[in-house]
Amino acid sequence: MLSPAERGFSFHPEDGKQAPQFLTQEELSMFVPNYHFVLHERLYSIGVLKEGETLDLIFPSRQHDNSNSEAEYIYEGTIGDDWIFIYFMGPNKKTSSHKHPHEGVVIEEDYHLLRGKMFLHLGGDGSSQVELTENNNFTTVPPNTLHRGSTDGHFAFVLVRMRGAASIPRDKLHIPD
Known about the structure:
Blueprint: E1 9-12, E2 17-20, H1 25-31, H2 35-45, E3 72-79, E4 82-89, E5 98-99, E6 108-116, E7 118-122, E8 128-132, E9 138-141, E10 147-150, E11 156-163, E12 175-176
Antiparallel strand pairs: 1-2, 3-4, 4-11, 5-12, 6-9, 6-11, 7-8, 7-10
């Protein structure tokens, strides 16, 4: 197993492309030793799950449908009326720039930083920036706002809740910039 510092990309000489090394439970535990507890405590506190319920997480992680995102997703699905996404980003990674414009459904996207540090860049030019830390660990992206996340030299373990969006098909949720 590679250490977090050694993780990254492997080179495929047959096509000249880099392939991501997907996150395992052991690797996530190196960054967030109690990740299962941290995640479920937040899910209970915001009312997404009832005490004692748990999510089946996906390991090794997978990439989002949008190949421009460098986040490693360990859960995506609907719970009640919401879409829920849980992902990890290593240092110097970013998500794709996107928004959620849907006629008849107002989508506010709640970002819960569970561990680490990340930045949310808002607006077309990304000049408006929200820094999420373990002490300032929550923000809501307003409806139809172009946004992306980045980690700079830090990692981020993130829970995203798209309130009231469960009726929207998965392939219609994220509209790229």
